[in-house]
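ok, trying the design again with the full structure, not the truncated one.
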């Protein structure tokens, strides 16, 4: 065993490690949980119910703009008034910052590995002095640190007179220690009224690394999240759709378990799903999936086996070739996994990203609030929630949470039984989120609701129902809501339950103390600590995984035996 000394902070660590099991913190750092849009958090939760806190007065939230949560439990939200809001895990205020005057935040922020927050501001200007009136869009990527300091603002590239309309949420591509921000952006053509969708890659410091046309030439402009869509929270006609047009989807990013270059999946919201790789700071198209008789409506969710799931809405064509949406649709399973899986026919249209459950099943919320459960490419169950919804479900190890127009419903993830229902109005427009300690967050009528995590037993164990575990069963513990000042992680594991690899290169070439320090520091930050102290490293015949999901290519891999994390 090799001992690497960095900064010692041992006394408190040993005492804490004796009483707490090491469990990596699962953060909800992107619009739909993780980069793959899974909507799954590997933590224990309690049913949403007693002890909830409402947080009004934050501002208005655009369609689909839900909270994101850092590993330390800080909650970030963006408002239509252009304010980035940071809250503590229990909903109490932390800080808030206004972005450029006149800009709106119409999608969820994204959190980088160093804790930085990236959020997009969009400004829409309508000039009625000309006939027909002219609408111009501008978009800016804003960069904050986790203390609220505004570090930078980066204008999107301009390609024609309408300017960029970046209505989708940002996602962050990660490979090793490299990161890049991926944003789908709409540009309206100067002539003919068509539009193009571009995928723009930014560095974390704001440089445009690449700017690639995904599709171009369509004459149908769908609009953005909550801008000019005529949303009605309580429509008089129940069969009518909750909204006219669903929010613009963001990208999904996926890496196979064996490692390799991450895939970037982007939908144009109409007919095409396009897959890219990002190498040498350049986007390269590797496949394109086209659907002629449907509109692609949901963000892409990528399963662990590499199948991308995306929801389609049926369309009808007039004699003049004009296409309009109608009820019904399909769920398709497509690349990067090329193994054919038959599409699933849906009675109702779906606008919410599919959600992966703890056991691999998939939960899908359709436009009328039906929760459909799929397993192995087929429908196996369905439940009725509390009205219409365009919001994706959020799943923990123990529960599924669904935001609907008239209520917030919790289902048991194993039995699918409804275990709680909170009545509200104005829900179903923003996806719920799950914090690393088991807090659950939902939005209705522009009010944030915070539902508490499971209660802690005298021995530190958490129970999914908020009390003690029944029938002699114990439930895995989430980290404590308030992290200690230091903690020792013995045999640290990744989120997938594999040993944490201690090298940056999968073949272990040039693996030295620098690798160990960098990886240990990143691991500790994911647990909510400021940095790493002492580290033990050894070579073992185990399955070793990096923090971003790549695997050691050798039979005997260098892994961490122990990492001391500390806040001082």
């Amino acid at each position: 065993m090799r001992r690497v000394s960095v900064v010692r902070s041992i006394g408190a660590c040993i005492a804490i490690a004796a009483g707490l099991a090491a469990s990596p913190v699962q953060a909800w750092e992107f619009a739909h949980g993780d980069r793959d849009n899974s909507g799954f958090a590997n933590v224990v939760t309690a049913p949403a119910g007693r002890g909830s806190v409402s947080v009004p007065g934050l501002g208005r939230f655009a369609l689909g703009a839900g909270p994101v949560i850092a590993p330390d439990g800080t909650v970030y939200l963006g408002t239509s008034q252009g304010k980035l809001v940071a809250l503590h895990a229990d909903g109490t205020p932390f800080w808030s910052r206004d972005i450029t005057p006149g800009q709106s935040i119409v999608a969820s922020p994204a959190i980088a590995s160093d804790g930085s927050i990236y959020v997009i501001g969009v400004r829409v200007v309508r000039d009625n002095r000309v006939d027909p009136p002219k609408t111009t869009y501008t978009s800016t990527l804003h960069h904050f640190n986790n203390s609220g300091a505004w570090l930078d603002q980066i204008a999107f590239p301009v390609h024609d007179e309408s300017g960029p309309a970046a209505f989708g949420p940002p996602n962050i591509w990660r490979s090793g220690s490299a990161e890049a921000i991926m944003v789908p952006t709409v540009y309206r053509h100067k002539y003919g009224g068509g539009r193009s969708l571009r995928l723009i890659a930014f560095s974390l410091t704001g440089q445009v690394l690449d700017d690639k046309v995904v599709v171009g030439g369509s004459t149908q402009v769908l609009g953005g999240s909550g801008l000019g869509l005529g949303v009605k929270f309580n429509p008089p006609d129940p069969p009518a759709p909750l909204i006219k047009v669903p929010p613009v989807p963001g990208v999904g990013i996926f890496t196979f378990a064996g490692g390799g270059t991450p895939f970037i999946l982007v939908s144009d919201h109409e007919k095409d799903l396009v897959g890219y790789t990002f190498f040498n700071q350049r986007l390269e198209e590797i496949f394109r999936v086209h659907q002629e008789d449907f509109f692609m409506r949901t963000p892409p969710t990528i399963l662990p086996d590499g199948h991308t799931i995306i929801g389609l809405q049926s369309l009808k064509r007039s004699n003049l070739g004009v296409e309009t949406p109608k009820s019904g649709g399909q769920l398709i399973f497509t690349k990067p996994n090329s193994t054919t899986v038959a599409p699933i026919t849906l009675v109702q249209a779906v606008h919410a990203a599919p959600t992966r459950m703890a056991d691999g099943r998939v939960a899908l919320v359709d436009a009328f609030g039906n929760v459909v459960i799929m397993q192995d490419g087929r429908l196996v169950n369905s439940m009725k929630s509390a009205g219409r919804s365009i919001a994706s479900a959020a799943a923990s190890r123990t529960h599924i949470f669904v935001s609907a127009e008239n209520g917030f419903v919790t289902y048991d993830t194993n039995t699918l039984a409804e275990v709680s229902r909170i009545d509200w109005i104005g829900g179903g427009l923003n996806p719920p989120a799950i914090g690393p300690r088991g807090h659950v967050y939902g939005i209705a009528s522009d009010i944030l609701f915070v539902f508490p995590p499971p209660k802690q037993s005298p021995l530190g164990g958490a129970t999914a129902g908020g009390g003690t575990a029944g029938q002699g069963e114990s439930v895995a513990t989430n980290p404590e809501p308030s992290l200690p000042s230091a903690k020792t992680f013995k045999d640290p594991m990744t989120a997938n339950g594999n040993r944490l690899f201690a090298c940056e290169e999968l073949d272990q070439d040039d693996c030295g103390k620098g690798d160990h320090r960098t990886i240990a520091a990143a691991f500790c930050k994911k647990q909510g600590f400021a940095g790493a102290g002492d580290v033990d490293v050894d070579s073992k015949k185990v399955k070793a995984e990096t923090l971003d999901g790549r695997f050691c290519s050798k039979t005997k891999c260098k892994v961490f035996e122990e990492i001391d994390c500390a806040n001082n």
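Keeping the full-length input from now on. Helices lie at 11-19, 513-526.
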